[in-house]
Each structure stands twice: as structure tokens, then as C-alpha cells.
Amino acid sequence: MNSIRITIALACSYFVFAILLNSVGTVILQAINSFDITKMQASVLEGYKDLTIAIISFVVASFIPRIGYKFAMLLALGLVALICLLVPYIAEFYAIKILFAVIGCSFAIMKISVYSVIGQVTDNANKHSSLLNTIEGLFMVGVLSGYWIFSGFIDSNDAHSTTWLNVYYLLAGLIAVAFVAVTVAPIKSPDTHAQRGEHWQAFVEMLVLTYKPLVLIFIISAFLYVLVEQGVGTWLPTFNNQVLKLPVDVSIQLASLFAAALALGRLVAGQVLRVIGWYSLLLGCLIAMAMLVLLILPLTQDVDGSHITNVFDVPFAAYMLPLIGFFMAPLYPLLNSVMLSSLPSSQHASMTGLIVVFSALGGTTGSIITGYIFDKFSGQHAFYLTLIPISLLVVSVSIFKKMTIAQHAEPVKG
């Protein structure tokens, strides 16, 4: 019974953060319309979210066990609930910036806590993996739900209306449910025997890792991947609305296909990897991504979807563009897996820290660059630009493959 209550608490908490974190693309579109700001100004929201996740993950990682996972989770939920209640009242763009900064900080605390608490309700590796995958699966359900929840609060007849901000009252209510679930869950306080120097030692170990050529080329690959994913995913609602001329609510609902494609792609990749190698799969996915960009973007020229009223009547090209997520999906988990399996387990924590930091930098860079090109040229130009990092990924992944082979061969030569 105790394990069930803890699992429910973890699932509820992760679900609400999935909605909040992945609403950035929707909020960027709405902020441009409601607050009369440029795409470049709106693009910084990705940075407020991602960079705070990276910074707080490093700063508080060693501190959370000292205050207790339960208190940390309640603190994260409480902070986000408070800012969600304030945003509709303030109704200014600076409040949205603060919102995403708080979301980033709180999610960093929540993710560290959730991953740590999972060990309290599982007693072997299989159960741990099963529960972790279940929690991450619910995260994807939250991502998909978020698009439809936000679209339900949008006034299609007045693009400049701020009534969509009322969605944060609903989200504050969902957070309150998660807060109660965590409060009643019997989450144990951890043993705290960590020494003061461990935090700085972990930082030094992260820096030392960056001197390894294999780690450096991996970091470049991870950075480029997240640059593409966030560039496309964050700006897809705006692309649907301003390039395809689709209504705002339909544009947001259609963008949920990107999240669905990511989820499906990772499930399919798990099965495909049983019969082909990881490098062949990644190379095939990168080629497919480039082909989709080259084939589909020309079809989006001169499309006028302003007369469309629901997601089922949109043009063919609008359905196809989010499918790039299907081929994009396996890249990130596979690169991480190959990298971590190439290092001794003692270095996994430091490597994970690097992954978080450079993923955040890649996401922020991708969003800002895409927003700039979108603003100065067009949505088509912005999405065509993804061909550059995709091409660089082909090169970096190929080098990464050679380096992993060389590393595995070194002990044999000795």
C-alpha cells in the first residue's frame, strides 16, 4: 500500500511538469499574439526553462538529500503552483519569463527527487527499470495532454486576447492534486552522510571528462540533436499558425503529433535495435529527417488553412511535418546509452551532469536561432536551416562510432 501511494505521488508530480515544460512552444505562439512581441523576444523562453534546469540540477543535486526528498518535491510543486496563480493576474510577458524560470528550477528539483525515490519502492534492477519507464511514459502522456488543454482555453476569434492565461488556474489545481498526493505518500528521508567536498569533487570530475575526445564528440552530437529537436518542436505551433495560416487552436493541437511521433519512434526503435546496429539506425534516421525536410517544406508554400476549423481537415503537408519526430526520436536515448556504456559506472553521474548542461545549451540555442531566422526571413527558411545541424550530426555520429570502436579495441591491443 505504501509503495502504491508513493508511485501515485511520483506519477502525478511528473505528469503536471510534463504539461508545464512542454508548453513552451504553445506559449511562444500565444505570447507573440497576445503581448505584441517579436519572435526573437519570445524565443528566450526556452532559455529561461532549459538553463535554469541545467544550473539548478548542478547546484542542488547534493543538497536535496539533506533537506529530504519529500520536502523538496513539495517545495517544487508549491513554487510552481504559486507562480501559476499569479501569471493570469499579472498578464504580462515578464511574468511568463518568471514562470518558465520557476518551472525549470522546480523541475530540476523534482527530477532528482523522483529518480531517487524510485529506489525506495523497488528492490531489484528490473522493478526499478519498469517503474522508471512507467513514470517516463506518463510524462509523454502529460506532454500530449498539454497541447489539448492549452488549445481549449484559446479564443480563436481574438488572437490578441489574454484569456488563454486562465489555463494556469486549471494547472494550479492539478498541481494541488499532486501536492496532496506527495503529502500523504510515506516518502522516507534519506541518510545524509555526504561530505562537504563531494559537490565540488563532482564538478571537477565533470570538467575532467570534457578532456576526453570521445566525450567531447558526444557532447557535440548531443548539442546538435537537441538544437534540432527544440528548434522544430518549439516553433512548430507558430509555423502552423503563421506559415500554414491555421487557426491558433488547430495549430497547437496539430503540434501534439510531434510529441506523439517522438514517443512512437522510441518504442519502435527499441524493437528495431534487436536486428540492426545502433549506428546504422542513427544514420538511417538522420537521412530520413533530411529527406522529410526537403520533400515536405516545398508543399507548405502558399497553403492557406484559415478556413479550417478542426485538426482533421488540415492540409497533407501539415500532417507530415511533425512526423520528423518519429525519425528524430531514437537519436538522443541511443547516443546517451552508447556514451554511458563506454564509461566506467563511477563516471556515470558526472557524464549525466554534462548531458543535462549541454542538452540545455543546445535547446536554448536551437530555439533562439530558429526564432531569429523565422523573424527575419520566414518559417520555411527557419526549418530548412535544420539541414545544417543534421548534416553535422552525420559527421559527428560517424566520428563517435569510430571512437567507440577504437576505445573497445584498446584493451585488446595492450
What are the segments in which pLDDT stays under 50 over at least 5 consecutive residues? Answer: none
Number of helices: 18
Order of helices and strands: HHHHHHHHHHHHHHHHHH
CATH topology of the largest domain: Growth Hormone, Chain: A
Q: What's the structural domain tally?
A: 2
Helix content: over 70%
* CATH H-level homologous superfamily name of the largest domain: MFS general substrate transporter like domains
In CATH terms, what is the architecture of the largest domain?
A: Up-down Bundle
Largest sheet: none
What percent strand?
under 5%
User: What is the CATH domain class of the largest domain?
Assistant: Mainly Alpha
**Strand element count:** 0
**C-alpha termini separation:** 54 Å
| Rounded radius of gyration (Å) | 21 Å
Structural class by secondary-structure content: mainly alpha
Summed up:
The chain is 77% helix and 0% strand. With 414 residues, the protein is mostly helical.
Main traits of this protein?
0% strand; 414 residues; Growth Hormone, Chain: A
How would you portray this structure in words?
With 414 residues, this protein is mostly helical. The protein folds into 2 domains: 1-194, Growth Hormone, Chain: A (Up-down Bundle); 196-414, Growth Hormone, Chain: A, CATH 1.20.1250. It has 18 helices and no strands. The chain has helices at 2-21, 24-34, 39-60, 64-67, 69-90, 93-117, 125-151, 167-184, 198-209, 213-242, 248-272, 278-296, 316-320, 324-328, 331-341, 348-376, 379-384, 387-413. Helix 3 (39-60) packs antiparallel against helix 16 and helix 10 runs parallel beside helix 16. The longest helix is centred in the middle third of the chain and has 30 residues, at 213-242. The radius of gyration is 21 Å and the shape is globular.
